[in-house]
Amino acid sequence: MSVVDDLLANNEGFASSLPTKHLDVCPSRQLAIVTCMDSRLDVFAALGLRDGEAHVLRNAGGIVSDDVIRSLAVSQRRLGTREVMLIHHTDCGMEKITDDGFRAELQEATGVAPGFAIESFTDVEANVRQSIERVRQSPFLPHRDLVRGFVYDVDNYRLREVGAGRD
C-alpha cells in the first residue's frame, strides 16, 4: 500500500466522523496567510484557526512570488480578504541553497534552465521584510495596509513579528 493509499483511508475515517456541512468560500476572518510549505508548520493548529476562517497559500520559503500575488488578488478582489499575514520560519530549506547553485543543478539534471526564480535567502527577517514590501507595492491588491510579517520558530513554536522597514 502506498503513502497516498494510507492517506485516502485516513480521509475516509475523517470524513465519516464529521457531520456534513457547507462553509462559505469567503474566509470568515477575511484573512489570507502566506507561508512556507515546510511540514513542521501546522498553520491551523499554531494559530488556532478552524476550517473556513482563512486562505492559506504555501510555497517553498513562503515567497511572495507573482503567483502568490495572483492568488492574493483573487482572495481580496473576489473572496473578501482584507488582511495579509506572512509567516516564514527558522531553519528553512531555502536558506540552505543558492539561486545559482540550484539553477545549475536543475539544468544539469534536465538539460533545461528553469524559467522560474529560485529566491533562496540567507536572512529570514530580511526576506520577511522584502515579502511585506512586495505585498504593499502590488497594484493588483486593493488592501495593502493590513500586512504583517512573522518568523515562526520551529523549535519553540512561537511567532516573532518582523517590521516592514518603514518605521
State the share of residues found in helices, binned by percent.
Answer: 25-40%
Beta percentage is 15-25%
**Termini separation:** 54 Å
Order of helices and strands: HEHEHEHHEE
Number of strands: 5
Which regions contain 5 or more consecutive residues with pLDDT less than 50? none
**Sheet with the most strands: spatial strand order:** 2-1-3-4-5
How many helices? The count is 5
Helix/strand/pairing category: alpha/beta
Task: Assign an overall shape.
Answer: globular
Rg measurement, Å: 18 Å
What can you tell me about this protein's structure?
By secondary structure, the protein is α/β, with parallel strands linked by helices. Helix content is 35%, strand content 17%. It contains five helices and five strands; from the N terminus they run αβαβαβααββ. The protein has helices spanning 3-16, 43-47, 66-79, 99-110, 124-137, and strands at residues 31-36, 54-59, 83-89, 147-152, 159-162. A five-stranded mixed β-sheet has the order 2-1-3-4-5, covered by helices on one side.
Summarize it.
This protein has 167 residues and is of the alpha/beta class. The protein has helices at residues 3-16, 43-47, 66-79, 99-110, 124-137, and strands at 31-36, 54-59, 83-89, 147-152, 159-162.
Features:
5 strands, 35% helix, 17% strand, 167 residues, five-stranded mixed β-sheet
Give the helix/strand layout:
Elements: H1 3-16, E1 31-36, H2 43-47, E2 54-59, H3 66-79, E3 83-89, H4 99-110, H5 124-137, E4 147-152, E5 159-162
Parallel strand pairs: 1-2, 1-3, 3-4
Antiparallel strand pairs: 4-5
